[in-house]
């Protein structure tokens, strides 16, 4: 991507908010996931990431985590597979002994202008990656998460305002909001907080992967701030929700979206 996204958290200064914690982040090889991984490391957490097959990107995330003198694990595989999610949890626990923080971030999107052109295979694939994976990975992690842990899910502004050419993607992001609110109630007895972040138009590899070049070039221009956000501008929301700073918050959604008021 040109220019490359700001996802190395170079201007962020940690304050040991996650010291000694162990985190697992899906889709941590680039974009928002990478920024969150590096931000967690700067706050003192060891971090495991999952990714599909972008090995060079994952290696760069590992390098950035280890530069903070934190341990890093990169686990390749398809997050839409429940077997892989169990394996990812196993590897994270083998490395760190437990998982204090889970970030369900991996997602995919595909531009389709008309519902009539939206095929069954794509609908099923988008829901498997974006929604089923959050069920699978959370289910795999919970037996290894101490009481008082934190789960942060990535939803989207499209869950609230919709997107006519991202029908299936928007529907999955709405499902994630409901999943977050319901799971937060279920896990209250264990003191595990479940929250979400709903980014607006952010400059990540997800954009050129799903949009044609002309639309990618205009990404974010309709936001009130008239620009796309950077992953580094979103990651602090995840850090806050994962830390004790958000100890009285569960079932909530933060909205780093460039000024769009969503009333939800």
Poorly predicted runs are none
Largest sheet: 7 strands, parallel
Helicity, as a percent range: 40-55%
Give the overall shape, derived from the CA principal axes: globular
Text of the CATH class: Alpha Beta
The residue-averaged pLDDT reads 93
Number of domains: 1
- Strand order within the widest sheet? 3-2-1-4-5-6-7
Radius of gyration: 17 Å
Brief summary:
This protein has nine helices and seven strands; from the N terminus they run E-H-E-H-E-H-E-H-E-H-H-E-H-H-H-E. It is of the alpha/beta class.
3D architecture notes:
Helix 4 (120-141) runs parallel beside helix 6. The protein has a single domain (22-254), classed as Rossmann fold. With 264 residues, it is an alpha/beta fold. It has a seven-stranded parallel β-sheet, with helices on both faces. The two termini are 32 Å apart. The longest helix is centred in the middle third of the chain and has 22 residues, at 120-141. The chain has helices at 31-42, 55-66, 82-96, 120-141, 158-161, 167-186, 206-210, 213-217, 231-242, and strands spanning 22-26, 46-51, 72-76, 101-104, 150-154, 193-197, 253-254.
Could you name the key traits of this structure?
264 residues, seven-stranded parallel β-sheet, 9 helices
Helix/strand layout:
Elements: E1 22-26, H1 31-42, E2 46-51, H2 55-66, E3 72-76, H3 82-96, E4 101-104, H4 120-141, E5 150-154, H5 158-161, H6 167-186, E6 193-197, H7 206-210, H8 213-217, H9 231-242, E7 253-254
Parallel strand pairs: 1-2, 1-4, 2-3, 4-5, 5-6, 6-7
Helix pairs in contact: 1-2, 1-9, 3-4, 4-6
